[in-house]
Amino acid sequence: MSDTSPSMQALRAPQAYDRTKVTAGIAHLSVGNFHRAHQAVYVDQCLALPGQEGWGILGIGLMDVESERAKAKALQSQKGLYSLTVYPPEGASSVSVIGSIVDYMHAPDDPEAVLTRMSDPAIKIVTLTVTEGGYNTDEKGRFKLEEPHVAKDLQNAVPSTSFGYITEALRRRRDSGAGPFTVMSCDNLRHNGHVMKTALLSFARAKDAALAEWIETNVTFPSCMVDRITPAVGPADAARLNTESGLDDKAPVFAEDFIQWVIEDKFCAGRPAWEKVGAQFTDDVDPFEQVKLRMLNASHSMLAFPGTLIGHRIVHLAMRDPNVSALLDQFLQRDAGPFLNAPPGMSTDQYGDMLLRRYRNPAIGDQLLRIASDGAAKLPVFVQDTARALVRDGKDHRRVAFLLAAFTEYLKGVDDKGVSFPVVEPNVTPADFTLVKDPDPAKGIHLSVFKGWGVETSPAFVKDYARLRTQIQTEGAGKTLAALLKEIG
Ligand code: CS2
Which residue, among 407, 371, 403, 408, has the nearest Cα to 387 in the 3D structure? Predict the structure, then answer.
């Protein structure tokens, strides 16, 4: 993963605390870059405070794929240490070594060992970043018991899914008297605590009704809003980061300097003093979540799908395209913002402006294809409510129709210049891909990703969606966007 040269230094544990005294109190499922640049940082800062040494993280990789095994090897070889480089919009970057992941296990190699650790009373919180698509719910929010991995976990004693691991660990804890742990989703979902609870209880009910009841009574599922733009790290990024830091790190990460975490204070077995290191606790995460998902993540989608078709690949470079920048600005100020309550301390307009500044940060080089990936799981979470509200209130729906048209065309994997790009869409079905190829452009509105949005029943919306698709096909997304902006005025 990294270039090693003799002049590079080995990673050294943070000086702010004695890492040999730190033990795991949190088990985190699916340790992606975002977790390592966000939650693990809050925990790392907490560990420097007195009395917090029991809140280290046990990282657990769930996916039985080569890249995850490689990550496990890399992190284990560094005793869980890694470097994080943070880039402000201007000025110098800063590098720190994060020491909060004190243990790392690759679950497919030894599920029993993972269950033993998760059943240990020392673990008091289980957190997850398993992506928007990882909660296995349909468009009505129902848990899909028939999903093959879930169905297998319902049959087998040895789990492979997050639901299987958590349920079995909780069963053992109930039986041993170790008591419950808190289960907290850290994914970008509306009401992520509620989604987590519904998913886990549905799974547990299908497995063992009495256990499900115990979980419902004893386990808490706080919601939280998470925010920090964390790009993917390719081999070239890793080499650059190590050159800049002078560290020999097999798993470096980088991120913007902005960071935010708003958490519902509902922990059944205690929690770290995250409020002392910048996390905000609240009784109602919803307003924070709405603004973040419907403005940040939705405008990210607005950037990623049209932007990729136009030929852009990197966020801050795409933001230099005046039409892309105008599209995002209009979407934030005119489409998304007016339906939302302002976040504390600023208006939605100011929040929108702040987002555009964050996207323009030239040091980040965030990837449009990272943001685009699994769009079918993301768009319903990020854009559906705004689309529905625009149609319901008879407001201008054209920017959102353009986004949906662009997403549909993006599924073909070729941009305006004829350049192919990888389409990572595990939640787009073969039937959906067939619809995309249908000669009638209006048919695409029936893709399963748009089901239940309330746009397919609006003839005006479908008309704009279809004509924008046709225009993208014949003239390209760049020209279609330019014409649309002119038309809107
Ligand atoms: C992005 C997010 O994947 C996406 O769709 O919008 O990963 C985004 O970068 C984070 O939510 C920022 O907090």
Answer: 403
Q: Please, how many CA atoms are within 13 Å of residue 442, restricted to the half-sphere of its CB?
A: 10
CATH code: domain 286-488 is: 1.10.1040.10
Per the DSSP assignment, residues forming a β-bridge with 87 are 256
Query: In this structure, which residue's CA is closest to atom 6 in ligand 1?
Result: 297
Q: Could you tell me if the CB of 300 is within 6 A of ligand 1? A: yes
* Centre of ligand 1 from the C-alpha of residue 255, in Å: 12
Question: What are the domain boundaries of the chain?
Answer: 19-282, 286-488
| Percent helix / strand / coil, the chain, rounded to 5 | 50, 10, 35
Verify whether ligand 1 is closer than 6 Å to residue 227 (CB atom).
Answer: yes
Residue 226 alpha carbon to ligand 1 centre in Å: 9
Q: Taking the model in full, what pTM does it have?
A: 0.96
Q: What mean pLDDT is predicted for residues 434-439?
A: 97
Closest CA to 21 of 45, 72, 55, 60: 55
Q: Which of 33, 130, 185, 188 to mutate to test the pocket of ligand 1 (most atoms within 8 A of CB)?
A: 188
ipTM more than 0.95?
Answer: yes
The per-residue pLDDT for range 68-117, each reduced to its tens digit, is 999 999 999 999 999 999 999 888 999 999 999 999 999 999 999 999 99
Question: Mean pLDDT throughout 464-471?
Answer: 98
What's the CATH code, domain 19-282? 3.40.50.720
Q: Which residue has the tokens 């934030």?
A: 332
pLDDT at 6 (0 to 100): 61
How many angstroms is it from 397 CA to the middle of ligand 1?
23
User: Considering the chain, what is the average pLDDT of its residues?
Assistant: 96
- How many residues can be counted in the chain? 489
- Classified as helix, coil or strand, 1 is coil
pLDDT at 2 over 60: no
pLDDT at 345: 85
Ligand 1 atom 8, closest CA: 229
42 CA to centre of ligand 1 in angstroms: 18
> How confident is the model at residue 5, as a pLDDT?
61
Ligand 1 pocket, 171 CB below 6 A? no
Considering only 5-9, 207-211, 396-400, which range has the smallest mean pLDDT?
5-9
- DSSP codes joined into one string, 174-204: HHHT----EEEE-SS-TTHHHHHHHHHHHHH
